[in-house]
DNA sequence: TAAATATTTAGATAATCTTCTAATCAATAT
DNA sequence: ATATTGATTAGAAGATTATCTAAATATTTA
């Protein structure tokens, strides 16, 4: 969970995810989309991989990166806990009474 | 969007959100739940407020913090872009052909 | 085999982040 | 009025992060 939020906490990495939405790409083609050195992009890809947000496969001399949707589900579940479920019985909320 | 992911990229702040799920709390009561100084918690609350994930209201000497669900929706929409919508016509995915 | 290409690893630097203590501000209580 | 209580602000130290260049590794091509 920590790796997940860490990976998402960067505009470049989020853009990479949006790029991969439209299809797999090689590390080089991803790097070409940014005004940033290849090693930097490689590092971003590494963090995305650590978070399981992308998968990579070596294809000859290239490395193909692809989105991994399954981890997104995990995040969605986490967020859902904050959406009070309409089908579930209304729980009384603990309220603090402060002051007089 | 940046503030949002930044705020979420910390275990303590995520725990604070989970605490507030069950009802509003004062800054002090939140701080008591953590093994951390009050100023540190105050700073975490500030980042959560900057991200609009919580709202705060001064009640006399206390400050009451509450969850702000509405921003969660924004995040959900962002995540949804990665979930290929079943009702939408299947778009051909761009595929890279690498190697022979 | 040697050169070229694609990518990653290593190491350095600057910026940002987390946390602390001390000090300040604001509200309540003595 | 002054002391106490709740909370934030200021400033500093240490850790983490983003980025770079240079070097290394692996694969393909000449």
From TrEMBL, chains A, B:
Residues 1-87 form the HTH arsR-type domain. PROSITE patterns: HTH_ARSR_2 (PS50987). Pfam families: HTH_5. GO terms for molecular function: DNA binding; DNA-binding transcription factor activity. Keywords: DNA-binding, Transcription, Transcription regulation. The keyword tRNA-binding does not apply. The keyword Transcription regulation applies. InterPro entries: ArsR-like_HTH, HTH_ArsR_DNA-bd_dom, HTH_MetalResp_TranReg, SdpR-like_repress, WH-like_DNA-bd_sf, WH_DNA-bd_sf. NCBIfam families: HTH_metalloreg (NF033788), repress_SdpR (NF033789). This is Transcriptional repressor SdpR. The lineage of its organism: Bacteria, Pseudomonadati, Bacteroidota, Cytophagia, Cytophagales.
């Amino acid at each position: 969970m920590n790796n997940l939020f860490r990976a998402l906490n960067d505009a470049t990495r989020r853009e990479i995810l949006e790029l991969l939405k439209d299809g797999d790409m090689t590390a080089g083609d991803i790097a070409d989309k940014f005004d940033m050195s290849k090693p930097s992009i490689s590092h971003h890809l590494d963090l995305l991989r650590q978070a399981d947000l992308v998968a990579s496969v070596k294809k000859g001399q290239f490395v193909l990166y692809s989105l991994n949707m399954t981890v997104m589900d995990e995040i969605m579940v986490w967020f859902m806990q904050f959406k009070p479920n309409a089908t579930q019985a209304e729980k009384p909320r603990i309220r603090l009474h402060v002051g007089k």
